């Protein structure tokens, strides 16, 4: 999941920016 970890992190950041 180390490979998807950064993906989720970026997704979370993108969501916060969209909000």
Structural overview:
There is one protein chain. With 19 residues, the chain is an all-alpha fold. Helices cover 74% and strands 0% of the residues. It has one helix and no strands. The longest helix has 14 residues, at 5-18. It is rod-shaped. The termini are far apart. The model has no long low-confidence stretch (mean pLDDT 88).
* Silhouette: rod-shaped
How much of the residues is beta strand, in percent?
A: under 5%
* Helix share, percent: over 70%
Biggest β-sheet description: none
Q: Give unreliable regions as ranges.
A: none
Radius of gyration: 9 Å
Number of strands: 0
Average pLDDT score:
88
Distance, first to last CA: 26 Å
Order of helices and strands: H
> What structural class results from the helix and strand content?
mainly alpha
So how many helices? Answer: 1
Could you provide a short overview of the structure?
This protein is mainly alpha-helical.
What are the defining features of this structure?
single chain; 19 residues; mainly alpha; 1 helix; 0% strand
Give the helix/strand layout.
Layout: H1 5-18
């Amino acid at each position: 999941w180390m490979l998807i970890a950064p993906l989720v992190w970026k997704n979370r950041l993108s969501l916060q920016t969209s909000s």
